[in-house]
Design a protein that fits this description.
The chain is an alpha+beta fold. The protein folds into two domains: 1-102 and 309-359, Uridine Diphospho-n-acetylenolpyruvylglucosamine Reductase, domain 2; 104-304 and 363-469, Cytochrome P450 (Cytochrome p450), CATH 1.10.630.10. Helices cover 50% and strands 11% of the residues. It contains 16 helices and 13 strands. The protein has helices at residues 27-31, 33-44, 63-71, 84-87, 98-101, 111-129, 134-158, 167-183, 187-202, 207-227, 233-240, 246-276, 288-301, 334-345, 371-391, 454-468; strands spanning 22-23, 47-52, 55-60, 76-77, 161-165, 311-313, 317-319, 322-324, 329-332, 392-397, 406-408, 413-415, 419-424. The strands form four sheets. The protein has a six-stranded mixed β-sheet with strand order 1-2-3-9-6-4. A three-stranded antiparallel β-sheet has the order 5-13-10. Strands 7-8 form a two-stranded antiparallel ribbon. A hairpin with a 4-residue loop joins strand 11 (406-408) and strand 12 (413-415). The termini are far apart. Bound molecules: protoporphyrin IX containing FE. Protoporphyrin IX containing FE binds next to helix 6, helix 12 and helix 15.
Length: 469
């Protein structure tokens, strides 16, 4: 709730548009965003005006202020229609980030509409959330099986020892397979979707057209599952809210696909990096607890969503050393907030005891990643990391950690690739299935059938993997 007294910015406080701003996305930011955040903090304090592709934006840098923004959705709105510069048509024509913000789905809704859309997603994800439910078990078993298939493919292509990019040859195909499985794409649709999400995520010259095609594909998928419901998220979303049109459902699926691919992929790769960094021999015996702690540590050091979605001020309010005016845009930076938190943790006043679980990897407040999605995302990350480490007798980075190539955008900072030299553990066949014990299936259908999507998908992925490599 917004409990602040009403206030108006003092006339002598500088307006965002009147301040000189330094562009955020520079080669310095690409190489070392931490140095940029530090400098901005030194000059401006906890909140700094920056230029984002020619548009002035308040970048929120300090942990306390970022939390303040994330937790108060009455003051900090998500609907892009609150943005004054947009309403007054002051944005540069074709500003590249606007199209995404104009896609109306859960993330960019407020109030009751937002709560209802979130509840729908929550209800639809619930069957997959728990490892003990048949759907939850089946999905986790599929993730493990896909991981095994991909390692087997590596062994078939490059032998039991060799070089691999754990981004292009493992993480990304794995998550695309999980997406087609979870969303219930028929194989024909799956191949098409896999190709377009890949192009979209790579942001190449065809990305805009691929995004439109992916949205259209998701809309077709929605129509398909409306006609032929299955045991998948698309069908459960329709069950949870039958009033969803195919277009609206397509938009929701599209946004979930971005989280399930790019963002979950960042978390997998960053966690693998955390394990591999400085460890010539991979510790294959990471317990579930250790793996969970490693995921948290990786999320703190390299947060999967570096700068969270924009918020728009509902009214004038002080933030950091500035007054933000009604309709101004703010970008809460989880990456900068983590830097602030880690600096605090190393301060002799606070001590070294900052919990890694204080990370903002899942966001915070009313728009944080829904608990069912967190549960599912976390399970996918630990399975993906655990399975590949299980198969490796030895793995090491082929580049020093500080020379790994990162892709730095306005929202995400993710590894472009994670090149390793590996040796497979010869004592275990790469494609061996280590399925978790099946839960009691109450609906009398017996053990879930083997995944019929995997074979067709693997064909498409093989083409993609080795073309991208
Ligand atoms: C494991 C990796 C994941 C990470 C690190 C992650 C992270 C996040 C973060 C940081 C936000 C908040 C964004 C903001 O406030 O600006 C968010 C929101 C969201 N996430 Fe996740 N997510 C993950 C997986 C998933 C998955 C698997 C799904 C769906 C299947 C999902 C669905 C969503 C949705 C729908 C929202 C919007 C919630 C709202 O606005 O109310 N996420 N996620």
């Amino acid at each position: 709730m917004d409990t602040q007294p009403r206030a108006t910015a003092p006339a002598d406080s500088p307006a965002l548009e009147s301040l000189p701003v330094e562009p955020l996305l520079t080669s310095e930011f690409d190489a070392d965003p931490g140095a940029v955040y530090r400098r901005l903090r030194r000059i401006h304090g906890p909140v700094a005006p920056v230029g984002l592709m020619g548009v002035p934006v308040w970048l929120v840098l300090d942990y306390r202020e970022v939390l303040q923004v994330l937790r108060n959705d009455t003051l900090w709105r998500r609907d892009v229609r609150h943005w004054r510069a947009r309403a007054e048509r002051r944005l540069p024509p074709g500003w590249p980030l606007l199209a995404g913000y104009e896609v109306r789905q859960t993330m960019f809704m407020d109030d009751e509409e937002h709560r209802a859309a979130r509840q729908t997603l929550h209800t639809a994800l619930r069957p997959f959330q728990e490892a003990r439910s048949p759907q939850g078990w089946e999905l986790r078993a599929s993730v493990a099986a896909y991981a095994d298939e991909l390692v087997a493919l590596l062994a078939a292509e490059t032998g039991s020892a060799g070089f691999a990019d754990l981004g292009a040859q493992y993480t990304r195909p794995l998550l695309l397979m999980v997406t087609t499985r979870l969303f219930g794409c028929p194989v024909e649709l799956g191949d098409e979707l896999v190709m377009d999400l890949w192009r979209m995520l790579d942001g190449g010259p065809d990305a805009g057209a691929a995004t439109a095609r992916a949205l259209a594909t998701m809309t077709r998928l929605a129509a398909h599952r409306r006609a032929r419901p299955g045991d998948d998220l698309t069908s459960y979303l329709l069950l949870a809210d039958p009033s969803l049109s195919d277009e609206q459902l397509g938009r929701e699926l599209f946004m979930n696909a971005v989280y399930l691919n790019d963002i979950t992929g960042n978390m997998v790769l960053n966690t693998l990096l955390e394990v591999l960094r400085g460890n010539a021999t991979v510790r294959r015996s990471l317990s579930a607890g250790q793996l969970g702690a490693t995921v948290d540590r990786a999320a703190l050091v390299n947060v999967p969503v570096a700068n969270l979605c924009f918020r728009f001020a509902a009214r004038d309010t002080p933030l950091g050393n500035y007054w933000v005016r009604a309709g101004d845009i703010v970008s809460p930076s989880a990456a900068a907030a983590h830097q602030d938190l880690l600096d605090l943790g190393s301060s002799p006043i606070v001590g070294p005891a900052v919990s890694t679980r204080a990370h903002l990897g899942w966001g915070a407040g009313p728009h944080q990643c829904p608990s069912a999605a967190r549960e599912l995302g976390g399970a996918i990350v630990t399975t993906a990391v655990g399975r590949v480490l299980d198969h490796f007798a030895h793995a090491e980075l082929t580049l020093p950690p500080d020379q790994l190539p990162w892709r730095s955008g306005p929202v995400v900072r993710g590894l472009r690739l994670l090149p390793v030299r590996y040796e497979l553990d010869r004592s275990r066949p790469a494609a061996a299935r280590h399925r978790p014990p099946a839960p009691h299936l109450s609906h009398g259908e017996g053990t879930p059938t083997p995944d019929h999507h995997a074979k067709g998908l693997l064909g498409a992925l093989r083409r993609l993997m080795f073309r991208a490599g």
